[in-house]
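Researcher: For the annotation table, I need structure tokens for Mediator of RNA polymerase II transcription subunit 16. Please keep the output clean. Sequence:
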Amino acid sequence: VIMMKQQREKPVKVKELIERKKKYKKLREEKLLEKLRKEKAKIEEAPNDTKVDAKMDAKVDAEAKPATKTVSLAVPGSIMDNAQSPELRSYLAGQVARAAAIFRADEVIVYDDLCSGTLREDFIAVKKGVGCIQMARILQYLECPQYLRKYFFPLHDDLGYAGLLNPLDIPHHLRSHEECPFREGIVTTKPTKHGRGSYANIGLKGDIKLDLKLEPGLRVTVKLDEGQDPAADEGNLRGKVVSPQAPKQELGLYWGYTVRLADSLGAVFSQPTFGRSYDLCVGTSERGDSVDDVKVPDFDHLLVVFGGVKGLEAALDADQSLVASDPKDLFDLYLNLCPHQGSRTIRTEEAILVGLSALRPKVYPHLGLLNETQPVVGASVIAMECIYRVSPLRKKRKKCNLLKSWNQGAENVVAFTSSSPDIDSTGCPGSRYNIYVCDINTPWEVHRIVGSEEPITQVEWDLSGARLAVADGKGVIQVWMMKDYVINDWVLMNTFNDMGGEQILCIAWFHNGKKLSSSPEQQEGILYSEKFKPVPFAPTCCQFGKRPMEGLVVASVSGLLATFILRIDASVLSAIEKLGPELHTLAMVDFAYEKNGDMALACVSRSSSACIRMYSLQIRVSGDSMNVTVQNLPAIFPTLHSSYIVSCVQFLLKEDPKGLLIAMHEKTRHSCVMESEVTRWRLSEKLDPVSKHFGGSTSVVCIQTWEKGEHCKLPGEVKEILVPFSTLDNGPPSHIVVSTITGTLHCLSGDSFTKVFSKEHELRGAKDSVEGMELKRLKAELGPVIQSIRFSWSACSFLLLDVNSSLCLYRLVHHNEPGGNLSTAYGVHLLEYSLVMGLDWWDIILSLRPGMAETVCERVADFAAKQPLPLQQYFYTRIMALKMNLYRYVPGGGYRVASCNTLVMLHSVAAAFRSVLRPSELASHDKGPAENLASILAGKMGELGCDLDKVCLQVEAKEFTVEASTLQSLQQLIQWVSDLALFLIATAPTIQQTRGPTYELLRDGNALGTLRELLVIIRLWGLFWQHCMPVFTKALDNLDAISLAYKLLTKISLNPEMDVSLLGMFHSLCVHAARLGAT
């Protein structure tokens, strides 16, 4: 209280507060100045070549020295003067820019090969339209990202037609929704506090805050700070100004080119951009050496010079500063880039593309690009991401034991087992062991197939995904199949009890012989028949007409092989053979398919794991008998030390038994394994000499032998090796996943067999049993952390079942594009492959970046529209289903999903209507009544106008005659078509403002044509039987709703953009037109 009184007696004046703030501010400024003086002193004490200018432009400085190798192109500006019009001049420069971007040029030099003296360093020409100046300006314009062009390129005559040129679409030309750790930007004039960094516009909704204070108007390369979401953190983004070489050095991204002007040919060599002189100069001329016979040496800075209309000889004669008499003396290599050319001359823009294509395989190895570029059929995996983690049987309080198979067919369905008793409908305990299935898209919806009192040892789907084979502990095998393709209703097809109670180790279904392949060269094709070629792959067993037979092969612990064939007449053929003359107790068995229809087996015995026995299985059927032949193949002895144990054996590909993966570890006194080795073995053929004492007719013989290849050492004991079922190019897989007992996932490169990355699987779910326990104790009590893993057919994702009964879906992250997802081309290729093969595409869409879904959908639709008409009709439903799945990943794409769904329904209704038409006589063997009606509507639209009655007079009414009972069954479909037509008309006036479900339909000419065709058919049917006509609530008594709907839909077809006059007519007609009843 005394202190408060004192404060009241001596109040602080406002002036004193202001003076205190001024003193405090002055003190802060002095401290800041002192700090800047110290930093300046440190810079001055450093060597001159290490001084840093804080206000440097992030674009490559002319005197900067890059840390990577560079490629420069020198192009003469006189080729612009050879063009006949301004449009062609711009297009020619655009061709040069496209070539420079395609072949990753770091610099483009535009030189005056005529030495006309019309150039200045500030890009100002003495007269308008100088070729060098215009080409340089267009090259710079096209290289600049689209969102920065308005800041750096004001209106100019040289850029009059630049907006019509093809875009370069290089990595730094990013859209606002695309993700990349680097971006190009411009420093803005937004005010900042003293000592703070500037703001820059990098093509996002909000500006980014930089770490440096720079002058406004500078172009900068910005690296975004990690852990930021550009979509969520608008206005709060931070970044660091880096060199334009940083994206190339850190991620291998091509980041555009720089443009330099040279007033002569000599200035090309004397003024290098990157600080040093060009250590390898290549000249191009038809009088040079053939490029096919030349080996390009290593270099740091490569310069490729192209001549003009008169060649490099004319450029040398025009430059008085050069004393050489032959252009060949100026270059290290003087090459003819197109030997044996058919044309008399090759234009410079053509020579650039042809020459760089010829130099690419000779130059790219020095740039380290041949190993970085990924083919379309293989993607480099750099990480894995857990998409979801669920406990399918958590509500039932059951524990999952076995995840043995992922359906490779039309649906992504997974089967797994549980060891907890089930409860039947009466509440009584049921079977102890049960088999469940679920869709990976909805893993929480689990459906029980069957229960058993014996443990389930094997579960395996066939290649089509239609049948599921189940084996229990007593050797009983059951084959189940979905009833009417419903996942929650299953039917028992067959039961086999011929194994004598032996435990089943492995089940393999017969191969159906269906296989397509695609190489990187075929990816550029348009037709599906060009992209995907059938592979000669024989079925395991054929019946009459070479039709594949359904069957399976079962291997038991004692080495017995049981073969079962499921015939069409529901009968079963069976045969049992043994592996070799002696029975062995097997520990592991794996199957693979050969191209000739045989099957290969790899077996590991429990008594001698140092030897891996290989067998070939041949199955032939003749009438009611089956012959099974087992042949020995060369065995593998992975190690000579008896102290090593084989923990896993897996064929490299199920459709290529010439590669085998073997995981081994050394025996230890304790249960803990310190290290395992995974080795790749290859089956090869070689010629060996034969001794004369054998008396053979040949001195050499061809034998097969296994050769040890690459190996990789991993910590811990290997539990399982995960490989794809097959690859698109029939080559080795791009990646392999290895799981260990301790719960670690290792990803190995399929080419070099080196470890790319590792990830520890986290245990969750059973917190009560896990909490408070050490990791080693937990693994000792619960067993392997990872029970089983399975790839999807595309190898883009895999499922994992851990010890806590958690089902986890992992997505593999690829390094094809910024953002770490599948590239657009590779994603489109996989989706088209799944479309043709009838496979599910859910796991592929899961690996796409959300912003890519719309682009991928457009490309898939474009390629589908270019297929032959019969093929389009065959794949129509699947293409629309694929588009619906892709649009669900597009923000605000719900109306497109509804449009696709309506199109599928419209297509189905049209097929139903056309199928009931039975013409009495066919005038043409190619066209029926529906085809004739479609051709009349398409060919005579302007002649017939919008009158429905005139169209009805043009067709043969007797060809559309249908029985009354049939029309009565189609009445609901007729009502749906009419309601759809009126709904489109009612929403047409507002479609310009709000995009709804009808937005796509009103702009689809084919859909409108089909709808108009159906309205004509409905009108004709109404003439025969009035009761089949649709029912409406009319505003006027004398209103013909079908005719009015046909008229308005015809006007929309003629004017898809719906101008103001058409919209006004819609408004006036909708007021007095028919209204929708139930809808």
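Researcher: And a one-line annotation?
Model: The radius of gyration is 37 Å.
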